[in-house]
Write a structure and sequence with these properties.
The complex is a heterodimer. By secondary structure, chain A is mainly α. Chain A has one domain. The radius of gyration of chain A is 21 Å and the shape is globular. Chain B is mostly helical. Chain B is rod-shaped, with a radius of gyration of 21 Å. Chain B starts with a helix and ends in a 5-residue tail after the last helix. Classes of the chains: A mainly alpha, B mainly alpha. The interface between A and B is large, with 48 and 35 residues.
Chain lengths: 244, 49
């Protein structure tokens, strides 16, 4: 397998970090603008009133966690097929961001659930399946932290990453299959057009944030892998032949 | 002010705390990785620049 073969130089990485900081600033300004626009134009919902505005953070977080796990699934499959380190690192970067967005989705759902349902948490099918998804990917990250051998870590991670991704369709369909407390998915036909536009632009802004996170984490993991590979060469007594 | 305003503010505030917190974590991790790579490069080249 190709683990431990990445070699990078520090100077270009620093230049990329500076560019990344500027891109990050732009990404977060975009998110602030879409949220401000949505809050300002949204009229109160007939049933929920202003609470409806939580939709602009909760639903984009949930949709984009699924995008992150889709990337985990594709990258894990590619790793198992081709054995390339970069696929393992991409899967790990997407899994970390996906776990973050899943945790955020759950927390925002609880904040929305308390005034709407009167409870912070219930063992509803959607909530439970999302919590299972969250713990699978927290387990994935713990697994990566505790396995030292890069090849074994990559193979086991790919297996867990794929297993976790299988849960994503279950999460998505849980509101239709079990019909418990959580409402079924809204669609443009069931949502006021006033809300649809706001939801879409917020979802796109959060997607850009998530893709930015994954890209940035992936680049950092490449640097870490390159440093580990060099330390291994040092430990083996190989010095020289490096272009700093 | 609607009764539910604390929940609305809480949801948006939490979102920003989580996303900005992770952004800070990413930049720190990146800086540490660059430092480790620089150190490894220096060690491997035996101090020759």
């Amino acid at each position: 397998m190709g683990v431990g073969t990445v070699e990078l130089s520090v100077a270009p990485a620093r230049a990329r970090r500076s560019t990344g900081m500027l891109i990050g600033l732009g990404v977060f300004l975009l998110l602030a603008a879409t949220q401000a626009y949505s809050i300002s134009i949204s009229t109160p919902d007939r049933d929920m009133g202003h609470l409806q505005k939580i939709m602009y953070v909760h639903v984009p977080a949930a949709w984009n966690m699924m995008i992150a796990y889709f990337i985990v699934a594709i990258a894990s499959l590619r790793y198992l097929w081709k054995g390339r380190e970069k696929d393992d690192l991409l899967a790990a970067a997407a899994a970390e961001t996906g776990a973050l967005m899943t945790g955020l989705t759950l927390a925002l759902g609880m904040i929305w659930g308390k005034p709407t349902w009167g409870i912070w948490w219930t063992w509803d099918a959607r909530l439970t399946s999302t919590a299972v998804l969250f713990f699978i990917y927290v387990g994935y990250l713990i697994l990566r932290a505790f396995v030292d051998d890069p090849d074994r870590r990559a193979q086991w991670s790919a297996a867990v990453g794929l297993l976790g991704a299988l849960n994503v369709p279950i999460v998505y369909m849980s509101v239709r299959w079990w019909r418990t407390l959580h409402q079924v998915q809204s669609s443009p036909s069931t949502l006021d057009p006033n809300y649809t536009l706001s939801l879409r632009i917020n979802a796109i802004a959060v997607m850009i944030v998530v893709l930015f996170f994954i890209r940035h984490r992936y680049q950092t993991m490449q640097l870490e892998a390159a440093a580990d590979a060099m330390h291994e060469r040092i430990a083996l007594g190989d010095r020289g032949g490096i272009n700093a | 002010m609607p009764d539910n305003m604390p929940f609305i503010i809480g949801a948006f505030a939490l979102t920003w705390v989580v996303l900005l917190g992770y952004l800070v974590h990413l930049y720190r991790a990146r800086r540490d990785a660059e430092r480790r790579l620089q150190q490894a490069t220096d060690d491997l080249s035996g101090g020759i620049k």
